[in-house]
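User: My advisor asked me to double-check a structure prediction for Elongation factor 4 before group meeting. I don't want to rely on an old file, so could you generate it fresh from this sequence?
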Amino acid sequence: MIHDIRNFCIIAHIDHGKSTLADRLLEITKTISEKKGDQLLDDMDLEKERGITIKSHAVQMEYKYNNKIYTLNLIDTPGHVDFSYEVSRSIAACEGAILVVDCTKSIQAQTISNLSLALKNNLIIIPVLNKIDLFDSISEDVMKEIMELVGCKIEDIIPVSAKNGLGINRVLNQIITRIPSPKGDPKAPLQAIIFDSLYNPFRGIEIFIRIKNGFIRKGQKLRFMSTGKVYSAYEIGILKLKRISKNQINTGDVGYIVSGIKNANEVRVGDTITDNQIPAKKAIQKFKEFKPMVFASIYPVDSDRYEELRSSIEKLKLNDASLSFKPESSPALGFGFHCGFLGFLHMEIVKDRLEREYDISVILTIPNVSYIVYMKNNQKVLINNPSDFPEMEKLKKVEEPYILVSIFTKDIYIGNIMSLCIEKRGIMVENHDYMVSRRIKIMYEMPLSEIVFDFYDKLKSVSNGYASFDYNFIGYRSSDLKKITVWINHEKIEPLSLLVHKTKVFFLAKKICKELSILIPKHQFSIPIQVSVSGRIIARETIKAFRKNVTDKCYGGDISRKRKLLEKQKKGKKKMRKIGKIEIPSSTFMTFLKVK
Ligand code: GDP
Ligand code: MG
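Assistant: Sure, here is a fresh prediction for Elongation factor 4 from the sequence you gave:
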């Protein structure tokens, strides 16, 4: 029975065509009857808008090969560097991976990082060259690069057009003939690994699992091995485009369980579920945990909604195991949460999801990395919030996290990219890797804080989109950092504090003052904006008091225009946050980032 199952994922660099290929597979296997539009697996609104896959999605298909029907479980994965956590979880649930390479772009940074994750997990790799409809003939260089990377023969590479459906049958045939069926013992005690979960307000928490050994029957009493809690599986099933309930799910299956669990803390991704009466002796080995690299605080725009924000973040965490948070408070912003994210994009997506899925407007403070501070009294502290930064006089030294950045590009952009890396305090590592067709890999050691902000956007623009990057944490190194403090109307605004390298202090202080003086609207009185370092003011701007009423613009007596203007003003107010006597747009804290 188990011989008829194939569990696989699709891995690729972003935009190389994973989601489009998944759509074609769903069509050919008649999992969907006809073309229903593009990117069926990207069901989160955000994914459609940003055109990227954020969450991994699982879907089951059936395919007939040599007169036998096979069950194929496809797990779509995100390609962006921030989401390698999701990729690694998907990979843990598969035996094979389709490696998609865009023939116009060839191998890029995340092609390599995702491939190496797959190889580490001993997955069978099926290399696919996508978008061949864009070329009359396939470039030999690209083929060579793939062969070199995967270690395969030229005839193993399947040329396809995910857009037109060309070559897709061959991909399906290879999935069946080359990827092994899941191992596992249907008669052994139940072991199922939780790879994802989702909060459903009506049904309680839905748990997504892959069964390694044994089976689950509807109504069975299940034990969660890390907590010891026992629940009844009152609904179980498999995942097609919708959930399909079943009476039994078996070894090798990817499926879901609903047990009416309401408490988010009881469901842990990576936990093993077993039978309560005949439990497995051991849990399945957990996934490698990813440490948060970027920190920022989230506060409700409306401070009365703190409790609501708390329950929303808890629910979101169910579906995003890589998010971490703890309560904090600040004199300027009240009660909120200090959160840890995998990267900058991850942070933005958490904010967007809170606002859309949970309908709660939030203020996100400036992100920062974590620092190791050595005090003169020989204490060593880890600090991931600039407001906790001790007085400069008490410090011996500060260390910040460094990463090794690998950048893939064409040789003509190398000059631009090198200047960008130098501006970001990068140090080149002396082993340029030339590949075929004038492509090159360069490596820099760089402070993580420098790429947290706009590195990705800048890299794209200086290379006309022909550069991709990936990074690994390499350790903490000492740095000459200063804490910049912002004062608005003589009030210290801790959430706007920043740690910056000493060479950038003056430049940034000036820019921050300028930017804030544009962002903060005029009030009835003038507002001084100041930036200080170690208690010394180093930059200053003043927002002049406004004299005119907004409605003064509508001379004459046009009442309706006047009303419209006032309404518009009221709407804008909702997104304002009062700090002392000053109304600050809640977006200030984000817009502010662009100055870095
Ligand atoms: P993902 O980020 O890997 O999921 O990539 P998508 O599936 O979203 O594809 C990225 C873009 O490439 C979309 O605009 C697709 O329409 C386009 N695309 C995907 N496959 C093909 C193909 O075979 N030929 C052409 N011409 N475009 C494709
Ligand atoms: Mg996609």
